[in-house]
């Protein structure tokens, strides 16, 4: 099934340098404390993205990783910023030296006019991968400053810099493993290959390993070919697991031979010895002192708080859920949810504030180094079919979607094109329903150019399921989990608001008369009538995408969760079959 995708943006070098300068200036303008430390991490991430974009541009031009010129200069600046982040963390956020503008200008000179492709570092945006953990793991590894650190682009660029900082400013190079996702390899210049000779030790940094571990495997294979013994190679992954089911035997062997050094978010923050490093201390200035230990509600655990009957629990995909914690204070309870480090997290908290100000979402207490903190609505219950008048629900959902469409417009290319959605829908329909379904999707192909001409991308919600809505005791309907599914680790991204109209039809049953009311409210809010043909096509694409997501999540789930996800996949299969007018397997 086709579900996942990388979040990428095209950007000019001058724009990326400006982002870096803004991030550094933000850190420089703050006094000691967590806010300055978080700003330093934001500057590190911005610099890492710039290094990644420049290094990948050079790679595309020459077909080899070389670590020369602008890439080398910018990598040096990145390691300098990593040192500042590590010094800040070790000092309890008291120390925060940052490079001056002249140093940044020298590193950023002569980047050229060609646009860069920047890939979102997913671990920083979604999965609570904290760069400080890599420096701490490196400092405790026993490796020396003479180690050569190899960062795997994308996120391994910044993570490798933190390993270098933890080792005492060790040498850093970055590489881009390429090829089939399960059989990646390296393409290095002769000069860079010579640097990876048998004379010293090596550290390899990246998120993962994933299903195949082939990115780590590509580096380990190269080092072995250079005569470097396994005991001279240290791996710095994000978790203690081994490569998944798609890993080759060679990758498993190489990965198993190397020493691994791992420090997770739980080790770094939840189990921190120093009080200032603990999440409780980060939250207290926003919500007041906690009167009970933090309660983790990640991985679907929030359902125990929202549903009295376990049999009524909706499905969850624990591997994809953000880390979240319930914080209780004398003034009520608050939900602290990981929203992303640096600029990505700051962008999401701005969305949360705007949505709350418009009356659609819970109160926002603030943002603290990756965590968005919102009011936990005591006494509210998840939306249930039949509990709210359908026309009233259509009015409320229409107001919400109309506000998003008007307030959060995005540029073309911010999400999957209609062609990409068609390819996904055809593939997933064929997988689930056979050749007749694929032929039915083919029937929409010629209409895509006409439909695409009217598409206006916005930051769609992409998550309109009934359990994502709360009904307060006074009847007020609130939307939860509303800030980041348009920028998730999947292929959808930002779409025309018609994508959410399709989601409302399938998830909330807002079709027929209620669907007409929904579309009328959105049109009133936006001044633009939704195209019914576009909505009809996107209902097919939406059902196909959600079918793929539920199917893949079920394959990785434990038995109890798998049963829920299988049921959800069956529901989407029936929706898809009905819209394609083909038979659905029982």
**Which structural class do the helices and strands define?**
alpha/beta
Q: Outline the biggest β-sheet.
A: 5 strands, parallel
Distance between the termini: 20 Å
Q: Which stretches are poorly predicted, pLDDT < 50 over at least 5 residues?
A: none
Global shape: globular
Count of distinct strands: 15
Mean pLDDT: 95
Radius of gyration equals 24 Å
Strand residues, percent: 5-15%
Give the % helix: 40-55%
Short description:
Helices cover 48% and strands 10% of the residues. It is α/β, with parallel strands linked by helices and 586 residues long.
Plain-language structure description:
Helices cover 48% and strands 10% of the residues. With 586 residues, the protein is α/β, with parallel strands linked by helices. The strands form four sheets. It has a five-stranded parallel beta sheet, with helices on both faces. It has a five-stranded antiparallel beta sheet with strand order 8-9-10-12-11. A three-stranded antiparallel beta sheet has the order 13-14-15, with helices on one face. Helix 1 (13-28) runs antiparallel to helix 2, helix 15 packs parallel to helix 20 and helix 19 (498-508) packs across helix 21. The mean pLDDT is 95.
Defining key terms:
48% helix; 586 residues; 5-stranded antiparallel beta sheet; alpha/beta; 5-stranded parallel beta sheet; 22 helices
Secondary-structure topology with pairs:
Layout: E1 8-11, H1 13-28, H2 34-62, H3 69-90, H4 101-107, E2 116-119, H5 122-125, H6 131-139, E3 148-152, H7 156-167, E4 171-175, H8 190-195, E5 202-205, H9 214-225, E6 233-236, H10 249-257, E7 259-260, H11 265-270, H12 279-287, E8 295-296, H13 303-306, E9 324-329, E10 332-338, H14 342-357, E11 364-368, E12 371-375, E13 381-382, H15 390-407, H16 418-433, H17 435-442, H18 448-453, E14 469-471, E15 477-479, H19 498-508, H20 513-526, H21 532-555, H22 559-580
Parallel strand pairs: 3-4, 3-5, 5-6, 6-7
Antiparallel strand pairs: 1-2, 8-9, 9-10, 10-12, 11-12, 13-14, 14-15
Helix pairs in contact: 1-2, 2-3, 3-4, 3-7, 6-7, 9-10, 15-20, 16-17, 16-21, 19-21, 21-22
């Amino acid at each position: 099934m086709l579900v996942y995708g990388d979040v990428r943006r095209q950007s000019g070098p001058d724009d990326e340098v400006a982002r870096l300068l803004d991030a550094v200036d933000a850190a420089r303008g703050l006094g000691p404390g967590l806010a300055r430390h978080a700003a330093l991490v934001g500057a590190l991430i911005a610099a890492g993205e710039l290094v990644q974009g420049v290094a990948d541009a050079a790679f595309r031009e020459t077909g080899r990783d070389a670590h020369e010129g602008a890439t080398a200069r910018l990598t040096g600046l990145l390691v300098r910023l990593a040192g500042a982040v590590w010094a800040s963390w070790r000092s309890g956020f008291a120390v925060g030296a940052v490079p001056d503008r002249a140093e940044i200008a020298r590193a950023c000179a002569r980047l050229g006019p060609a646009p860069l492709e920047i890939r979102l570092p997913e671990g920083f945006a979604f999965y609570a991968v904290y760069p400080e953990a890599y420096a701490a793991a490196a400092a405790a590894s026993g490796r020396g400053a003479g180690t050569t650190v190899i960062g795997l682009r994308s996120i391994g660029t910044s993570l490798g810099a933190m390993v270098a900082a933890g080792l005492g400013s060790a040498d850093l190079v970055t590489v881009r493993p390429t090829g089939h996702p399960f059989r990646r390899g390296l393409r290095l210049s002769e000069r860079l290959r010579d640097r990876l000779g048998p004379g010293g030790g090596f550290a390899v940094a990246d998120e993962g390993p994933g299903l195949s571990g082939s990115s780590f495997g590509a580096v380990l294979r190269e080092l072995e070919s250079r005569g470097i013994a396994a005991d001279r190679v240290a791996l710095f992954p994000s978790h203690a697991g081994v490569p998944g089911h798609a890993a080759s035997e060679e990758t498993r062997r190489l990965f198993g031979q190397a020493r691994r050094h791992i420090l997770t978010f739980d080790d770094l923050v939840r189990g921190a010895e120093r009080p200032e490093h603990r999440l409780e201390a980060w939250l207290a200035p926003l919500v007041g002192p906690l009167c009970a230990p933090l309660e983790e509600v990640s991985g679907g655990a929030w359902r125990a708080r929202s549903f009295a009957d376990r049999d009524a629990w909706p499905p969850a995909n624990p591997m994809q859920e953000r880390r979240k914690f319930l914080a209780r204070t004398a003034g009520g309870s608050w939900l602290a949810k990981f929203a992303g480090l640096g600029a990505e997290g700051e962008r999401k908290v701005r969305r949360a504030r705007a949505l709350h100000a418009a009356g659609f979402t819970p109160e926002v207490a603030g943002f603290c180094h990756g965590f968005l903190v919102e009011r936990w609505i005591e006494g509210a219950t998840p939306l249930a079919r039949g509990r709210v008048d359908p026309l009233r629900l259509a009015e409320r959902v229409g107001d919400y979607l109309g506000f998003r469409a008007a307030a959060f417009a995005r540029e073309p290319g911010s999400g999957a094109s209609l062609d990409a959605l068609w390819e996904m829908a055809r593939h997933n329909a064929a997988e689930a329903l056979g050749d007749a379904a694929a032929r039915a999707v083919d029937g929409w192909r010629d209409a895509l150019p006409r439909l695409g001409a009217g598409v206006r991308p916005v930051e769609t919600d992409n998550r309109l399921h009934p359990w994502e809505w709360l009904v307060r005791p006074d009847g007020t309907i609130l939307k939860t989990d509303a800030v980041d599914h348009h920028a998730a680790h999947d292929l959808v991204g930002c779409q025309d608001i018609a994508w959410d109209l399709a989601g409302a039809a399938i998830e909330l049953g807002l079709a027929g008369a209620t669907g007409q009311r929904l579309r009328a409210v959105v049109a009133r809010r936006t001044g633009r009538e939704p195209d019914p043909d576009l909505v009809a096509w996107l209902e097919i694409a939406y059902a196909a995408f959600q079918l793929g997501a539920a199917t893949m999540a079920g394959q990785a789930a434990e038995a109890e969760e798998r049963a829920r996800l299988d049921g959800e996949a069956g529901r989407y299969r029936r929706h898809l079959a009905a819209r394609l007018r083909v038979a659905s397997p029982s």
